[in-house]
Structure prediction request, 727 residues.
Amino acid sequence: MKLRGAEIILKCLEREGVDTVFGIPGGSVIPLFDALHDNKKIKLFLTRHEQGAAHMADGYARASGKTGVCIATSGPGATNLVTGLATALLDSVPMVAVTGQVVSHLVGNDAFQEADTTGITRPVTKQNYLVTDVRDISKTMAQAFYLARSGRPGTVLIDVPSDIQKAECEYDPKPDSSIRGYKPSKDGNPRQIKTALNALLSSKKLLVYAGGGVISSGAAKELTDFVRKLNAPVTLTLMGIGGFPGTDELFIGMPGMHGTQAANYAFQNCDMVFAVGARFDDRVTGKVSAFAPHAKIVQVDIDPTSISKNVTADIPVVGDCKSVLRQMLILLGGIQKTPDYTSWRKDIAVVSKKHPLCYKDDAVLRPQYVIDRFYQITKGKALVVTEVGQHQMWAEQFYKFDNPRRFITSGGLGTMGYGLPGAIGAKRACPDMEVIDIAGDGSTQMNIQELATAKVYGIKVIVAILNNSYLGMVRQWQELFYKKRYSGVLLGSQSSKDQKYWPDFKLVGEAYGLKGMRIEHKKDVDAAIKEALAFKETVVMDFQVAKEENVFPIVPGGASIDQIIDMS
Amino acid sequence: MKHTIAAMVENKPGVLARISGLFSARAFNIMSLTVGETEVSDVSRMTIVVKGDDKILEQVVKQLNKLPDVIKVIDFKNEEFIDRDLMLVKVNASKALRGEIIEIANIFRANILDVSADTMTIELTGRETKLEGAIRLLRPYGIKEMVRAGVVAMSRGRK
Prediction:
């Protein structure tokens, strides 16, 4: 039986196990939305902005481990996806975007709502396609999903002109998805794995440094077993949070710019770094030439381009973190004597004890306190999504995660406006989890329109806005490094004549038919959190926190990671 | 340092853009780039000559290898290889000077493709140094127009 291109696209999505798509229609995707109208297996979430759709698909993917899907129309619809695609690609999130394109004979003609979508999205996708023949759809979709979720996961975009969506052909249910130029190495070289393990076992001061690769390959259990077997200290990058239990005493915190003093001390004093699915990002290493000066480096990564990119690896292993760690665990089983890291751990513990993560516990409503209370009241069981900025760092510092895929944040691109749609996507993936969007007043306003999406589909998330009326992170840099010249960072009332709460987030929540709350005093925090947790619909919580609170510790940009400014 | 790289790629739209994007994103200037069909009809071969830091280039080669549309990459850094460039040069050549120019062309084993009342067009194939040698000798006559095809390269021996 012949099917229309649009129907074939949906058949392909069903084939890949997709049950949710996020998107907005427009002239060039009407045929696809027409087909969606009759589809019982795929639920459409109509978002209020295409960027929201992309972040929802991303949040859905990060929370579930499945591939997120978003749909947009040609031209502005597609360009609005760009930030979402870049966000997902940089954090290795599997995502497929389907965009409509103007009819084939108008492509390249500056037609209405035309943009060179494949051209614009090339740098923000692992691969993209312009489909020119309806018979290619099935195979292209199969390749797209294969590329998105295999190897180092990433984004794939498929651009389909509207006439191709309407054209008919036989549906090929089992096309060949293999790609001759693409064969990601999964298992790693066994000899290299053995060499790597032997090197690790020869160390006296080992530091395990794990990142997002552990989460995306599902290797949290293997990493935890491995670390516990060796009793070695472990640090996790922002993307790796939850890859090892945050409450375990072997965990010494996140490293880098806003990392713990202990983690940075460990890098600067260890004799061996075991990097697992982490890419030595500049926010981790600080000044590279001064980074981990005494350490040999063993690096496991599925992406060969991540190895020795910033810091040269002495022993590289190209492979999937889970598979490589498994092989190492098997080898470790046959080894009687492993190194004793007790005194090394004690050295680190001294630093931890001397410089713990802390905040002032006084009468002021401080943002860290709010996160701390969320952690205590939810007993660490919530799924936390964040926006980007100071609150993001505080969320990492003061909410502890024992499981993977429970801390979702835009780490690589640092996209403000990610949190709210990301949380909605995550909630769709994990309907039984309590989802909290730890947010700032700046970021929240970048995709605030998605409150409507939460309302319409009955998605319950808690939007906890730590409102300091500033673009707080930039303000902090201006305070510390630009002589307190606050340029372009004030978001709240400009003078005392203005209304006090501006914008009034409580009213904004209510305007969308949701619950709005304002919390101004420390004593009211617990009751408010409990009330929000008990509420059935999305709650917008406006915490009026201390305005000029800073994230500490901080390593100034470009400095060595032992040049730390901490709370005085 | 100058590097010559060959890449076997899918013969389809967008591939060239993705590859040139890898270089431009790192502010690498491509000195020459050629693309053409190979013995396999749906595979194109690119020869890319770039100047740049060894370490960054190693990263670019890895990035090239990672692209799904790239089937194979040859970095000629560690190999013996043959490379050739092709050039067409149109020089001023009055009747009196034709003999001299033909002599130069013969020395370089170049072909005379076209002659007019006051110009000659010469075709020359060879390594870059040879082409540059010929240009040096022809320049005094006045080069009206010049075009180079770009370098193509292949490993020596059975490989």
